[in-house]
Each structure stands twice: as C-alpha cells, then as structure tokens.
Amino acid sequence: MPLDEQSTKIELIGPALEARGWTLSLVAQEVKTGRVSLAGEWSAGTADYVLSVVIDGQKMPAAVLEAKAVHRDPKVGAGQARDYARSIKAPFAFATNGHAFVEVDSEGNPGSQEPLEQFPTSSELKQRHPIQQEQELQRQKEREEKERRERQRQEREREARRREEEAKKRRVSAATQQRAQENHNLVEQAKQDYFWAVDKGYRWAAAQAALRLKDADVDVADLRPKDADVDVPDLHPKDADVDAADPWIQAEEKPSRTGVFRFLKRLFNR
C-alpha cells in the first residue's frame, strides 16, 4: 500500500532533509502562514515545512517545502508552496513527494526543469538568500572601497617618496655646486697667492700655494709666468716638509714653524 502524505514526510522527506544538513533547529513543520488561496478558496494555510537559515546571528525563513504523498507528482504542490512562501516572505519554495524535489518559481510553476538531483543544503540556500547576497554585495563594495583607499594611500606614499627623492637630488646638486664653487674660489685664491709669492720672490710661500694647487689637480707649470723672476719647479707632496737643501731655497734660511705660521697669517690676512 503506497505511503500517504504523513508517512511520506516521516519516512522519506524527514530523512532526506537531515541527510542534506537541515537540523531540527532550522526546520519547522506545520507552520501557519496566514490566508492563502486553496482550490479557489481563501483559508488559513499551513506550510508542511519552513526552512530557515541563520544570517548574522538571526534566523530567517529561507524556503517553504510542500510535501505530497509518494505516489503523487510533486509538481502539484507548486502553487501551494509559492503562496505559503509569499505569505511568510520566504524567498524560495519547493515541493516534493519524498523522492523527487522541484523548485518553484515566483509564479508557482515548476517550469520545464527536471527534478532536482539533490535538495539544497542550508549553506547553499543561505548563499542564495537575498539578504545574504545583499550583505555579500555590501561587503564586496566595502572591500573594493578599502582597496581603492589603500591604492590611493600607496599612490600618495609613492608621490611623497618621489618628491622627497627630487628634493634630495636638488639638495645634493646644490651642495655639489656649492662645493664646486668653493673649490673654484680656493683654486683661484691659491693661484693669486702663487703668482703673488712668485712675483715677490717668496719661494716658500709659492711652494705652499703650489701644493694647494697640486691638491686641486692644477699643474703649476701651466700657470708659471714666462717672465717670472723666479722659476718654481713642479712640486711633490714631499715638498710640504720644506727642505732647506732644495735649490730654490738654498740661499734662504729655513723658516721656523712659528715663523711659518706668522708668515701665513700675514699672507692670508693681507
């Protein structure tokens, strides 16, 4: 003898829902749904199953499942499932005879689709729930906004680094130019000191000026006046220690350290 609707619910539909992860806390049976149209007459309706999902800690109706006896086509429960779902504001509606499940569209028709191979799990219906999708969309927008702000932050940091690098280059360039100018001034001063010392016959002073020029990679031979009274030879670092035996100061007394300092003070403060 075929199972009636109640037996179908107990022996087939209940185990099928449990196998798909629908726990007792998410499944309510014989739920009053308000007035619906049944066989052309409006009366209080009772949904066989109301399935809920938990979204952000709140349990919300997700679907109505209308049950029919195992020997009946589940599609005959399409209209009822739709009306019950609308009554409790559940976004989905299904009908079943325990073996076959069909999903009902907004018009209450099962459509041309073949019966579902498996009834959706609670997680699957949760993902399809409009509220969940709206929240996912909102979270996606928030992620995109966060990413956009992060890109802007990174762009600002890159721009700040670029400006800092440009400012650093300008500072380095300015410092280099300043040092170059200072070196140029020192070289020019050393040239003047050299020519002045040669002109005055101050050989030791000329040697010191020549050493300064040599440190600046200036060859004194290129600077020596052709009509100079004193011929100052090319110098080497050893000349820094004034040697009284050098031919160009043999006729002069080797200056004392104190005398050198005094002479240089007079020389550079003149």
List keywords for this structure.
single chain, 270 residues, alpha+beta, five-stranded mixed beta sheet
Run of helices and strands: HEEEHEEHHHH
Strand content: 15-25%
Q: How much helicity do the residues have?
A: 40-55%
Which shape, going by the Cα principal axes?
Answer: rod-shaped
Uncertain segments are: 226-257
Q: How is the largest sheet built, in terms of strand order?
A: 1-2-3-4-5
Q: How can the largest sheet be summarized?
A: 5 strands, mixed
Radius of gyration: 51 Å
Query: What's the rounded overall pLDDT mean?
Result: 79
Distance from N terminus to C terminus (CA atoms, Å) equals 133 Å
Structural class: alpha+beta
Topology, number of strands:
5
Number of helices: 6
Walk me through this protein's architecture.
By secondary structure, the chain is an alpha+beta fold. The chain is built from six helices and five strands; from the N terminus they run αβββαββαααα. The protein has helices at about 5-20, 80-85, 120-130, 130-200, 205-215, 255-270, and strands at about 25-40, 40-55, 60-65, 90-95, 100-105. The protein has a five-stranded mixed β-sheet with strand order 1-2-3-4-5, with helices on both faces. β3 (about 60-65), α2 and β4 form a beta-alpha-beta unit. α4 packs antiparallel against α5 (about 205-215). It starts with a helix and ends with a helix. Mean pLDDT is about 80; it is low at about 225-255.
